[in-house]
Amino acid sequence: EGCGVNIKNFFSVLLREFWGAGSLTIIALIGAYFVGARFGSENAWASVVAVLILVVFEVSISFDNAVVNAMVLKKQSAAFRIAFLTIGYLIAVVGVRLILPFLIVSFTTGLSFTHVYDMAVNNPDEYSHQLHLHHAEIMMFGGAFLMMVALTWLFDHERKVHWLGWLETKLGQLGHLSMFAVGLNLVLILLVTFTLPEEKRYASLLAGIFGVTIYIIVGSLGDVLGGEEEHVQTAKRGLTATLGAFMYLEVLDASFSFDGVIGAFAISKDIFIIMIGLGVGAQWVRTLTVYFVKRDTLSEYRYLEHGAHWAILALASLMFVSALHEVPEVVTGLIGFVLISLAFISSLVARRREQAAGDAHH
After folding, report:
1. pTM of the model
2. CA-CA distance, 196 to 194, in Å (whole number)?
3. Which residues contact 115 (CB under 8 A, 6 or more apart)?
4. Average pLDDT along the chain
């Protein structure tokens, strides 16, 4: 009976909170059928399957992204959350998962944007090949940005709650050293860059430094990552902080998605199917983010953000490694899932211990 109630509650929450993402998934699968049907009925059903796989793929590698997004989003207004799910979603799907790869190929090959688009539509194998040729630079940018996210959090000496006890306490003390996270990240970028073939070094170094620079610029807009003095901010400063938060979330999403965009070509060569699948997955991740905020999940499960940041550290490290050697996307997805699952279990255990101690006290 208890199991039946839990299942009923699960579907109730699913219908109430995730109906938008579910509806979009149905529409996307119908759209994928017709997109694939232009090459025959067999390809139509193959496209539907590819979209389903891409949705699961995107959610699995971006679950930690949802947790970190929730940390930023919980400080924002309801209007900001709507913008995150609408305007931000369009930027994430069309801008990051479709146009940005075009721009990367166009910039690195010297071909016009229209030429690259034509290549992607009519010669997807060549387009995929061109994108993979610049895999190192893309991974260096994404890895450098995510490494800043992880290190800045780990080196926060003001954080009171620690999941891994002694280790996180010692790492937090390093935050007393000004700009230590930036310096360490730049050293890592240099170590990886000079391990690459000579012809890749300059572009990869620039990409890595650009990733760090973007983090510093976006993160400093209105002290988005900190600053509890919103009540004394002027309207202008408040607008700057809101813009900074929005930009931070979009760049964070882009950094998480780079690996997925490249890895998606192993599932489908059709750029429209890739955009549909990753786009629907992105909507599930964003809806999950809003759900975490509404449920105050980060407060309820105290170590969840710890697990997410350790997962980001692992992902950033794997992106650096991926610039040198190919790393299967399933590895990055599984590491993130395992770390967040462990953090979730630790949170449950800690909460039950507190409840037991409270009951014993009374």
Report:
1. 0.82
2. 5
3. 106
4. 84
